[in-house]
Amino acid sequence: MTQKPEPILAIDIGGTTVKYGVWAAENLTHKNRFNTPKTWPELLDKLIAVKRELALPFAGVAVSLPGGVDTVVGKISGTSAVDYLNEFPIKATLRTALGVPVSIQNDANCAALAEAWWGNAKDVDDAIYMIIGTGIGGAMTINGQLMAGQDNFTGEFGYMVMNPAGETFSQLASPVKMAARYQRLKELSTAFTAQDVFDLANNGDTIAQQCVGEMLNWLSIGTFNLYVSLNPQRLLIGGGISARPGFVADLQQRIQHLMHQHKAALTADVRACRFLNDANLIGAVRQFYVENGDEPAAGAVRMEVR
């Protein structure tokens, strides 16, 4: 085993937010975030500024990205939640701009790597990971190995078409899309977050209750379909919504109800990702280790809470 390269700047680029942190000595610190810029030059400038402001002797940068990430070619193929990231050599571009080795991996795959390494899937071989955010991403591990697929598309559950109108799982079950649906139904100009809509639903807003209920319904149908198709030992939920009190238990109950209704003799073991919003960052670090010839052993990850 080679010496672990540290510290590492871990970056998670999402559709609405870019998160980052510093990994060293099995510890994730200096966590922060900023809104995802509208263009690639703006994002690149911001990442360069983050690295410069942290002023640490980074051994490398580990990046989590949306979409079909080709870790060998070093680009996103097809589409992603951040359109301007697609179809150019992002890995090589970042290495040149940041001046250190760079690894890239799909965000849901990063969550899977983190959870299979040190998280809530380390004790099972076969697991599904569903990451709920701007869209719905996912990943699979079978016999402990991350599945990529011929076109690096395994786990892109959000593309599943869910109804005759052609609406996808991401369109119907994403909290971000749910908040936009609420704004549309209320005919308001003010943008809402998913948390806003949950709060309004709790306070008796019937339109908010309708939107939340529909989102949960579609989430349960999609996850039920995954369970009966792939029969995993466990299904882990990631993304900010996974930290919402009662959310995972409610989803498991809904899935189990569908199994009973359709006489599927299965038991749903649904859990939140251990690392919640940090899963993509920690998994990106593991991807960096793997690409640099180091397979870290399992241990006790410590995280600074900020």
From TrEMBL:
Alphabetized SUPFAM superfamilies for the sequence: Actin-like ATPase domain (SSF53067)
One Pfam family in the UniProt entry: ROK
UniProt xrefs under InterPro entries: ATPase_NBD (IPR043129), ROK (IPR000600)
Assigned protein family: Belongs to the ROK (NagC/XylR) family.
PANTHER family noted in UniProt: ROK (REPRESSOR, ORF, KINASE) FAMILY (PTHR18964), SUGAR KINASE (PTHR18964:SF170)
Protein's name according to its UniProt entry: Transcriptional regulator
Source organism (scientific name): Levilactobacillus koreensis
Lineage: Bacteria, Bacillati, Bacillota, Bacilli, Lactobacillales
